[in-house]
Structure formats: structure tokens, C-alpha cells
Amino acid sequence: MNPGTNTPALTPPSRRTAALWGLTVSVALAAGPLLLRHRLPDPIAVHWDLGLGPDRSMPLAASATMDVALWAAVWVTLLVMVPAVSGRRGARAGWWGALVGSSALFLGMGATTLLANLDAPSWTEARLPAWQAAAVLAAAVAAAVSAARLRRGGPDGPGDAACAPPELLLRPGQRAVWVGRAGNRWLSAVTAAAGTGLGLLGLLWALGLVGDGTAAEVLPGLVIVLAAGLFTSSLTARVTEEGLAIGFGPFGWPVRRIRLDRVQRAWAETRSPVEVGGWGFRGLPGDATIMLRGGECLVVGYRSGGRLAISVDDAERAASLINALLAERVGA
Q: What keywords are annotated for this sequence in UniProt (predicted)?
């Protein structure tokens, strides 16, 4: 237990745990079809229509092999992520949730597929009750949430990746502003490609080289990619005496504002997309990361106990200014 709290001590995942867990699930996935092969049709039904009747089949051996291979891909990914997720509570929670939830999903899907085919004369006569499919999904979600909560460990403190910002003293009456930016060049490239594609589509349509039907099919996808890219490929952060403002996209809109009276302190940390679960807005409100690129991040600790990390350049200077403004308010 952490001193003075009822929170369990850190429960970092290990490669040994991941290896043993993955092997156990792999054996279970392979053992089911092997033990029940005399009561299963070959091929077996492996896909179901909306009415939960079979609409696709596969040889029994191929089906079992594919299940194990798909699980192995998830398992190896989690195995590789172990070193990156051991140090943070949110990353640990996500890792344990992914491991246990995906295990429950694969095992549940395998079990329901076997039950649906069990003693059926042929794969076309297999039936999958709707409640079983719903139960598997519900169980997987419940398992993931429970594992994430039970195995996340205690709250994080600033770890080895945290960097205490240099002290900044403001003279009486002095006002300072900090502006920092960050971007993801791959998202920017995709956004530019979508914009180019949209312009090219408009030109070809105007020249009559692309029909209305084709244009109507392609247009929504290009617009969605372009809009999403504009709002997620870059951000601008601004620190003033009023607090922190985070503007998204090249136009700095929409803007998320964090008032200074909500902040307890700020610091800089080095974070990676693997560590926080990917790019974009990761985590939950109160303990989240806005991740555009790996590297330096500004971390704002709330008075409520939560935190927000933003991948942005020159994060140390931003943290110094926030702390100086907080100190100025305390001393006022």
C-alpha cells in the first residue's frame, strides 16, 4: 500500500507475466477445437449475418490457426510495450485492461463459435444466439475495466522522465507571455494529401472527367480526413497571467482554456505515444495527454489532483512561467 492511502502499490507488468499469460491463452484457443473436433463439422461456421445465421465458413484447422495468430499479434504488441508502460499509472491501467480484455474477447469468441457449431450436421446449420454474442462483449469490457482499476497501482509522482523547470522570478508589475507549438508531420502530410485530392477531384469533376456518382462517393472521405487533420495535426499553447490556452489546428481553434486558479503546479516530462496509448487525446478527463509527437511535454497538475500533459516545444520555459505566476498570486 502507498503510505497514507488505501491505494495498492504499483503493479508494473513484466515480460514474464505477459509471456505466461499469452502462452496460456494461446493453448486454450488451440485446445478447444482440438478436443471437440469429433463433434464439429469441417469446415465450421466462422462469421455470422445480422440475424446471427452463418454466412462464411473455414476449415477447422485453419480457423484455429487464425484465432491463435490474431491473438499472437495482440499478445506480441503488448509484450513489446512492457518497458514503456511500467512507470505510469495510466499506462499500466491501459496495458492491464488491454491484456485481460482482449484475452476475454478472444476466448469468448472462440468458445461461442465452438458452441454454435457443436454437433451441427454442417456449418450452414450452426446457430449463434444473440445473447451469447452480447455476453462476450459485455464480459470483455467488464474484464478490461476491472483489470485496469485493480492493477493500475498508486498515483504517479513526477518520475525519472519528469524535469523540474528552472525557477523564474517576475519583477513587480512585470508581465510575461509564453507561446509554444507542436505538430505531427505525418498527420500534416495526410491532411495536405487530402486537400490536394479534394482540389484535384473538383477540377476533374468540373472538366467532366469524373462523374457525379464517383465524386459523391469520394468527396465525404476526403472532407472528413481534411477536417480531422486540420484540427489534430498541430496545436499552439499560450501561457498568460490568466492561465493556459491550447488552440488546435493552424487557425488555433477550437481553444481549450485552463484557468490559473485551477493549477497547483507545472513541470516538463518526456513522454512517448506508446507510453500513453497512441496519438491524439489519450486517457480520461482529469488524467489525460494531448499527444501529437513523442518527446517534451508540458504537464499541468490540477488542484483537484488530476493532470493534463501536452506535447509541445519549450515545455520547461512554459512550466517555469506557470509556476512563477502561481507564486506571484500566492505572494500577492
A: Membrane, Transmembrane, Transmembrane helix
